[in-house]
Write a structure and sequence with these properties.
By secondary structure, this protein is an alpha/beta fold. The chain has helices spanning 16-33, 58-69, 90-98, 114-121, 137-151, 169-180, 197-201, 209-214, 237-244, 248-252, 274-277, 284-303, and strands at residues 47-52, 73-78, 104-109, 125-131, 158-162, 184-188, 204-206, 218-221, 259-261. The strands form 2 sheets. A 5-stranded parallel beta sheet has the order 7-6-5-8-9. A 4-stranded parallel beta sheet has the order 2-1-3-4, sandwiched between helices. α1 (16-33) crosses α5 (137-151), α5 (137-151) crosses α6 (169-180) and α5 crosses α12 (284-303). The longest helix is centred in the C-terminal third of the chain and has 20 residues, at 284-303. The radius of gyration is 19 Å and the shape is globular. Bound molecules: phosphoric acid mono(formamide)ester (CP).
């Protein structure tokens, strides 16, 4: 079986069988990562450009490691040291890089639709590494891989996403992916951070965190985007923490364990307390580890090469 598209722009419209294929392939690559020499020749001879127009720690390093472990040649582009500063457009930048004979582009950009735009203007395979508030498909895939490993099955799993849903590409991709895989998804946050269309996507909406937690097995905590504080979306950080912060004190009241996730970067003491983030119920670093395997799987499946060395 193969993926239907030669690009990964989002999880909207990606089928259950395709997601399962990516997750199964990622498990095979995870065993490669545990070998003494964690490298296979699968993408030898291919050139991949990592086009990052926004800051990133996990996604950028994770893609770079995945590409190196697949033996691809890689080029890292950073907007802050490029001719973008002289006014070059995204289309010109990307087409000039492609003229140097590349095969795949991984792009992070602040504009929703940036990866779709490249897929229409380049011949290379395009992977969306986060486009504005739209989608972050590899994050949702690594989240699903982690939940599958932790809990066995995604079917009927009750996943609660807490925080700034309106500006979150992670939330959107998780909602698409988890619902496709048969999980039940709910979201919770202040009304100003919950877009109306989220209910239309099939997620249950809560404004009260205790009511939402009552119905959850897994809590995926989103970063409060402090750069948006001051825009009146919630009264204060202190009030946000009181109403929506994931604290040990709050979780203890339920007398059972929740699986705790966070895509990072975390604001410790704001959306999540340190003792929750570092507790035995937290799978945050497990998510990061799985990110490399998921990105190896996506790169391999989109490349169209045969499974040399898997
Ligand atoms: N989860 C995530 O996208 O983190 P980075 O912004 O560090 O890549």
């Amino acid at each position: 079986m193969r993926l239907r598209s030669r690009h990964l722009l989002g999880l909207e419209g990606v089928t259950k069988a395709e997601i399962q294929l990516i997750l199964d392939t990622a498990e095979s690559f995870k065993s490669v990562m545990e070998r003494p020499i964690p490298k296979v020749p699968t993408l030898r001879g291919m050139t991949i450009v990592n086009l990052f127009f926004e800051p990133s720690t996990r996604t950028r390093i994770s893609f770079e490691l995945a590409e190196k472990r697949l033996s691809a040649d890689i080029v890292n582009f950073s907007a802050s040291s490029s001719s973008v500063l002289k006014g070059e457009t995204l289309k010109d930048t990307a087409q000039n890089i492609e003229a140097m004979k590349i095969d795949m582009v991984v792009i992070r950009h602040s504009a929703p639709g940036a990866s779709l735009f490249l897929s229409r203007n380049l011949k290379s395979n395009i992977i969306n590494a986060g486009d504005g508030a739209h989608e972050h498909p590899t994050q949702a895939l690594l989240d699903m891989m982690t939940l599958g490993e932790e809990l066995g099955s995604l079917e009927d799993l009750r996943v609660l996403i807490v925080g700034d849903i309106a500006h979150s590409r992670v939330a959107r991709s998780n909602i698409y992916g988890l619902l496709t895989m048969g999980a039940r998804v709910s979201v919770c946050g202040p009304p100003t951070l919950l877009p109306v269309e989220v209910e239309e996507l099939g997620a249950e909406v809560y404004y009260n965190l205790d009511e939402a937690l009552e119905q959850a097995d897994v809590v995926n905590v989103l970063r409060i985007q402090l750069e948006r504080q001051g825009k009146g979306l919630f009264p204060s950080i202190r009030e946000y923490r009181e109403q929506f912060g994931i604290t040990t004190e709050r979780l203890k009241r339920f007398g059972r364990n929740f699986v705790i996730m966070h895509p990072g970067p975390m604001n410790r003491g704001v959306e999540i307390d340190s003792d929750v983030a570092d507790s035995g119920n937290s799978v945050i670093l497990h998510q990061v580890t799985n990110g490399v395997a998921v990105r190896m799987a996506v790169l391999y499946l989109l490349s169209g090469v045969d499974s040399k060395g898997l």
